[in-house]
Specification:
Elements lengths: L2 E11 L5 E7 L7 E4 L2 E3 L6 H13 L9 E11 L2 E13 L11 H6 L2 E7 L1 H6 L4 E2 L3 H11 L6 E2 L3
C-alpha cells in the first residue's frame, strides 16, 4: 500500500518564459533520470505555498513573496528510497525577474534528495529535447501555459 505524500511544485518562469527544471536521479537502485519542476513534499502543518517557498530556497536559492495560481494537479505512485509513495501534487505558477540560482542546500544535500542539476529551458529546447520529463507531457503543458495563460481551474497534468 503506497504511503500518501503531499507536494507543491513551482512552474518557475523567467522574463523570457524560460522554465527552471531540476534533474532528478533515482536513489541507489536505478540509473533512471528525469527533469521536473522544483518543489517537493510538504512538512507537517505547512501550506502548499509555504512549502513551495521553502523548496525554492533550498533547491535554487530563489526567494519569492508572491506565488501565482495553482494551474496543474497531478497524482502518481512511485518508488523512492525503498518506499512506495502516492504523491498528490499541486503546481503553482511563479514568475521571477532573475535567473540567478544559488541553492541554500549544499551539493551533497541536494544529491541526497536526488537533485543533480538545475537548468533554465526555453520552449524550443523543451520541445526538441530527447529527455524524460515529469509529467511526461511537460513541454506541451508549459507551452500552453505560456501561450494561453493560466487556466480558469487547475488541469490534470497526468503522469
Amino acid at each position: 500500500m503506497p504511503e500518501p505524500r503531499v507536494a507543491a511544485r513551482g512552474i518557475v518562469l523567467d522574463p523570457d518564459d524560460r522554465v527552471l527544471l531540476v534533474l532528478f536521479r533515482a536513489p541507489g537502485w536505478s540509473d533512471e533520470t528525469w527533469w521536473a519542476t522544483p518543489g517537493g513534499g510538504l512538512d507537517p502543518g505547512e501550506t502548499h505555498e509555504d512549502g513551495l517557498r521553502r523548496e525554492l530556497l533550498e533547491e535554487a536559492g530563489i526567494r519569492v513573496d508572491e506565488i501565482g495560481p495553482c494551474v496543474w494537479v497531478r497524482e502518481h505512485v512511485f518508488e523512492w528510497g525503498g518506499r512506495l509513495l502516492r504523491q498528490t501534487e499541486r503546481y503553482f505558477l511563479v514568475r521571477v525577474d532573475s535567473t540567478e540560482i544559488a541553492p541554500q542546500f549544499t551539493r551533497e544535500q541536494l544529491e541526497s534528495e536526488g537533485l543533480h542539476e538545475l537548468r533554465w529551458w526555453s520552449l524550443q529546447e523543451l520541445g526538441e529535447a530527447g529527455e524524460t520529463f515529469a509529467p511526461s507531457r511537460l513541454a506541451a503543458l508549459i507551452r500552453d501555459l505560456v501561450e494561453s495563460g493560466p487556466p480558469a481551474e487547475p488541469i490534470d497534468a497526468g503522469v
